[in-house]
Amino acid sequence: MVDYTSEDGLKILTYLRLTNLTQQEREVFREKWPEFYRGHGQDLIRTTWVLYSEALPFICGDGDRGSFVAAQIRDMEFGERLEESGLDKKLKDGTSLKDIFAASPERFASTN
Length: 112
Known about the structure:
By secondary structure, the chain is mainly α. It has one domain. Helices cover 68% and strands 0% of the residues. The protein has 6 helices and no strands. The chain has helices spanning 6-15, 23-39, 44-59, 65-85, 87-92, 97-102. Helix 1 packs across helix 3 and helix 3 packs antiparallel against helix 4.
């Protein structure tokens, strides 16, 4: 089993073109990664998804209705882009994250 890092999670967001994180959100993402990664069975996609769409809007937001709406929007966007990209299937088929990223350098024109 590969031990993924927060940087891998942030690269997933870039690959999915979800590059709207603030500096504070990137820092919190890195800080919370180990806890969420262990808590979600060391599942790279699930951990990235939960941190991005469920945790960050509430940790870095006001924790109000705006955070709730942001969480819903992010959840929907992540799911749609994950499906469009085929990333989850590629990983399940055994393609390494490094190879997936190397095959799509255009996705990294703007980075987190």
